[in-house]
Amino acid sequence: MRYGLLTAAFAASVAFTTASHATELEVTHWWTSGGEAAGVAEFARAFEEAGHTWIDGAIAGGGPTARSVFVSRLLGGDPMGATQFNHGRQAEELVEAGLFRDLTEIAEEDGWRDIVNPPSLLDGCTLDGRIYCAPINIHSWQWLWLSNQAFEDAGVDVPTNWDEFVEAAPALREAGKVPLALGSQSWQAAGLFQVLMVGLGGPDVFNQVYGDKDAEFSAGEEVARVFAAADDAREMSRGSNAVEWQQATNLVISGDAGGQIMGDWAQGDFQAAGLVAGDDYSCLPGLGVHDVIATGGDAFYFPVLDDAEKSDAQLELARIMLSPETQVAFNLKKGSLPVRGDVDLEAANDCMKKGLEILAAGNTVPAVEQVLSQDTVTQINDLMTEFFNSEMTAEDAQAQFATIISQAD
Ligand code: BGC
Question: Taking the model in full, what pTM does it have?
Fold first, then answer.
């Protein structure tokens, strides 16, 4: 996508009034699905309305693939103008290496500490008291998305919680559906597992495992129940035949699968496909068991550049991304929640409203990438890929998981 070409004529006619320096900035991210592309187009539009040119650097293949491209470009001396990461610890080493700009000054001028909600989002951008990224949304993983059509075809009620979903699985199979759609990339299996942990176990269990990194507890009975559910999920996901998350989401959109456990970015795709929350699909935050969401999400980092004009444009982009108008336009399309509590989300759909209510009630946990190092996250991802693609017993998987937690940093 090159939004610059689309709007070049218009930008040229207003360049004198909207900005003194029209600057090209390459912005890298991993947003390539229908809902994601609709969201990023809102950022591009707002940046171009300010008289600049957005050079779109979308990388296909999902977050881990894209992040390895970003890292090798940054370490190889080929920085982009701005880049997405999940806020938290993902970009910690790059910040420590001095590759990203310190945004503290504009964050203070614009009062980010007062407007960003919850404050943990800004903490995820902060190292030694300095702010290195602009948080732009809250994305939560803790959702079960259900196709109303698939359940109708199978002659069973749309489930209201995880146990009912598991009970409905044989009827879905009978009707030729995959009960639980799951893509084959490792982060998806691990994400699903982590949702079982907090959805079924509850926030205390989640915090004791991931926050306290309590290995003994991770090897115990309460976590064993989560592994038993992962065993059910493995069985229910057989035959998904999807690689990327959006391929699995498409199975739910078409009614070929009963449901998918996936982050709330999936609803950007339901929306882009013209489906209506409540009518065509249902959503169960916290798997209908514990109403809880994690407050992870996306943030933009701005590499240090030896170019005064681009450096100015970087700060302008950070401000645009956090402006009330852009926050509303972007998040409504993307399916995420805004990082500002002071914006009007009247237009939010039913599922998004549920997320906003849970957030307002303070029923939140940190995202896994906020509390674990990237290395530990990768070890859990690898274990879950192996578990979901083999006959490994739930007991063996739990023992290996507890060992990872015992060494986690
Ligand atoms: C990001 C989302 C994105 C999702 C799938 C997550 O890590 O936070 O913005 O939609 O990956 O690509």
Answer: 0.92
